[in-house]
């Protein structure tokens, strides 16, 4: 009996070093920003070389700091567009994009437009104009939209079933 107690206590002690389940972190959806560029002039369009997305807490962006690259969080550009993913965005932003014509243009200050924000960036001669595009998914996370759609579907099905039951069970006039 003594050996059994020692063995049991040993197993309990050893099991305390192993997690009960695997912990997964950083798995939920993250807010995003997509920037599509259009050019004001009809001349040859320069391509994007690099860019910085500044985050600001103040409306005048006096406290601007670049969005940090932390795991999936960061700001990335290809030659025609840019995108950002973050754990959470500040309320105000400013873009600084370097183009192949060796000119760096800065944007106006703009606000976060929603969870999955979409913006049109007009490339002008000396600066950038950022305007948000309305999208229904911009204000709600995709998972929430799916839950709302399921609830609406269940309510709709319930109404149809209720109407059918009502029509079948109502007293018939003779």
Outline the structure in words:
This protein has 2 domains: 32-134, Immunoglobulin-like; 140-168. Strands 4-5-1-9-10 form a 5-stranded mixed sheet, with no helix packed on it. Strands 2, 3, 6, 7 and 8 form a 5-stranded antiparallel sheet that branches. It is flat, with a radius of gyration of 28 Å. Helix content is 24%, strand content 32%. The longest helix has 28 residues, at 142-169. It is α+β, with helices and mostly antiparallel strands. The chain has helices at residues 2-15, 142-169; strands at 32-39, 48-56, 65-66, 74-77, 81-85, 92-99, 104-106, 110-111, 116-123, 128-133. The protein has 2 helices and 10 strands.
Summarize the structure.
It is built from two helices and ten strands; from the N terminus they run H-E-E-E-E-E-E-E-E-E-E-H. By secondary structure, it is α+β, with helices and mostly antiparallel strands. Strands 4-5-1-9-10 form a five-stranded mixed beta sheet, with no helix packed on it.
